[in-house]
Amino acid sequence: MPDAADAQLQPGFSRQEYADMLWMQFKGLAAQLPDGGNDVTLSSGQYRRLLLSPEVGLYNRCAVYLRQDGVIVLQLRGTVNKMESWLENFYAGMVPATGSLQLSSDYRFDYRVASHPQATVHLGWLIGTGFLARSFTPVLDSLLAKGHQQWIVSGHSQGGALSFLVSSYLFYKYKGQYPQLRIKTYASAAPKPGNQYYAYDFEHHIGHQWGFRIVNSDDWVPETPVSLQTVADYNEVNPLISARATIRKQKLLTRIFLNTVYGKLERKSRKSAAKFRKYLGNKLYKFVAKSLPGYQPPVLASSMHYTTAGTPVVLMTNSAYKQRFAFDGKNYFVHHMLEPYLFLLDLYYPGTP
Question: β-strands 98-104, 107-112: how paired?
């Protein structure tokens, strides 16, 4: 293996790197690699697995790989066929992007994944981030001490959502001490991780040519979670703030009509957001608490305005794709798995860097 200082992590979407990330997600998080060892040779070179974490929290798992050029890969597992793993996805109340979570009786997770005071993120995936951090942090600390400052963070589906939050967490945890640290993110088939202000923060600090959201255009998972934007979700400076004052200046009949319409729309959106928080946050807490003894629920943010993050790499489907990957009325994940993503990757990036 070359010295860590020789690591070559380049900006821009790389077909080879992304293909490697898909392999690691669907093959490289198993207890044993296909050849039974710790090394595997993929499109971008040879990788050595340094860590396979235990299953933690709500059935999360991660792996750390060292690429032959010194680049570190942190791979985050997606949803598995366990009730707790699905519960993490549906536990979708939002919390501030800076704070602290009591995840168990002996573990408090202090976190910062965005600096904007209005940034909020998905609680279930933040819990996953917190439990995984206990597994990967000691390994990354050791690798940093050896000079490894070029990292890829990746995952597919739930793992893709986690890759956003983990990348942000690592940026704020290490960038001040290691200004040369470079984080590249491949969030594959990822749901929406937080609100608009979180997305702004991610794209400012990690995005542009380094933070990618790869989406099959027929895949429904990246369209989740359910989102609702209210007047309170807009930037502080906006004309809706003074809507009531503007309405008061209108003629009587116009004023009555506009007050009625505006009032109904504003109240209904607030009530809908409150219901989302009730059922996707407070109600589901009871089930989460059974799986995580000692977990204490945080105060939920008022926002339920989820949005996408990262530079989009959209893999548009066509007639040939639809013929091969047809929905039969039951296979709801037909567009979400490894084979359809590889098919479209080969279609649009046929062996090019």
Answer: antiparallel
pLDDT digits (tens, 9 = 90+) for 295-310: 999 999 988 899 999 9
Question: Which domains are seen in the chain, by residue range?
Answer: 4-232+284-348 (3.40.50.1820)
Alpha helices for 146-251 (secondary structure H): 158-174, 196-205, 243-248
Is 35 exposed, middle or buried, given 0-12, 13-18 or 19+ CB atoms closer than 10 A? Answer: exposed
Q: Are 25 and 75 in contact (CB under 8 A)?
A: yes
Collect all residues with Cβ–Cβ distance below 8 Å to 66 and sequence separation of at least 6: 1, 47, 48, 50, 72, 73, 143, 148
pLDDT tens string 70-97: 999 999 999 999 999 999 999 999 999 9
Work out the average pLDDT over 204-222: 95
User: Rounded to whole angstroms, how far apart are CA atoms 44 and 49?
Assistant: 15
Higher-confidence residue of 255 and 204: namely 204
* Calpha distance 276→239 (Å, rounded): 26
